Amino acid sequence: MIDLKDFTPTEILIYNYLVSHVNEVAKLSIRQLADTIHVSSASVMRCIKKMGFDSFYALKFELKQQSEKAKCQQFAKGFDTEIFTLNREFFNRPLLQQYSQEFKTFKQLAQEVNNIMFFGIGTSGILAQYGARQFSNFGINAVYNIDPFYPLSDRLKQNSQTIAFMLSVSGETAQNIDQAIRLKEKKFHIVSITDNSYCTLAKLSEINFAYNIQPEVIKDTLNVTTQIPVIYILESLARNFAD
C-alpha cells in the first residue's frame, strides 16, 4: 500500500483519479490524462514516480494487470474453477520426463503392429472414438469399439499385430477388465490410459499412462474426473509416434 504522507494535495488528486479510473487511464496519453484532471504533465509524472513507477507506461501496465486479476477473482466467485486448478497442476509437471519410458516403448510397439483398436465405455468411449480419429488423421489404421460385449471377428483372434488401446478412469470397471483379459488371451498388446497405475487394468497392460488427477464422482455413480490429461496423452502419441 502506498504511503501518501509525502504527496502534495495535487499529487493526491492525481493518485485518486489513477486508482479509481483504471479503464479510462489505459486509453489516455499522459497529456490527455493531465488535461482531464486539470493538472500539468509534470505533476502527473511526479505522482507516478512517488508511486514507484519509472514511466507512465509502467503504471498503465500495472493497473491493467490489477484490473485483470480483479476480474478473474470476481469471475471465480460465481464459477467453479477447480478444473483450471487440477489441469494447471497436471501441465506444471515435467510431462515429457514423466512419460519418457512409456512414449519410447509405445513408439517401438507401434512400429511393429498393423492396427490399433480403441476401447472405452461411457465418457471413455467417447474419448476412444476421439483417439481413433486422431490416429487415423496421422495415417495409422485405427478403429474404436465402445461395446464391451461386441463379438470380434475371427480375423482378429490370436492377433499379435494389433494394439488394444483401452481407456478407463478407474481401471476397475468389470466390463473393461473382462475385455482386457479376453484380448490379452488373443495376443493383443494391451495399452491403457487410467487415472492411476495401481488399478487392475494398468496391471494387465504392457504400457500404462497414468495421469493421477483427483477423482471426482457426483450423484454417487457419475465419474466426472477431468479428461483433459487423456486428450493430451492421445494427441501427443498420435502426433509424435503415428508416422
Question: Topology of this protein?
Answer:
Blueprint: H1 9-20, H2 22-26, H3 30-37, H4 41-50, H5 56-77, H6 82-91, H7 95-98, H8 100-110, E1 115-119, H9 123-137, E2 142-145, E3 162-167, H10 174-185, E4 189-194, H11 200-204, E5 207-210, E6 217-218, E7 222-223, H12 228-241
Parallel strand pairs: 1-2, 1-3, 3-4, 4-5
Antiparallel strand pairs: 6-7
Report on this structure:
- With 243 residues, the protein is of the alpha/beta class.
- Helix 11 links the parallel strand 4 and strand 5.
- The longest helix has 22 residues.
- It is elongated and about 90 Å long.
Summarize the structure.
The chain is of the alpha/beta class and 243 residues long. The protein is built from 12 helices and 7 strands.
Name its key features.
243 residues; alpha/beta; five-stranded parallel beta sheet; two-stranded antiparallel ribbon; 12 helices; 53% helix; 12% strand
Residue stretches low in confidence (pLDDT < 50, at least 5 long) are none
Number of helices: 12
Label the structural class.
Answer: alpha/beta
Largest sheet: 5 strands, parallel
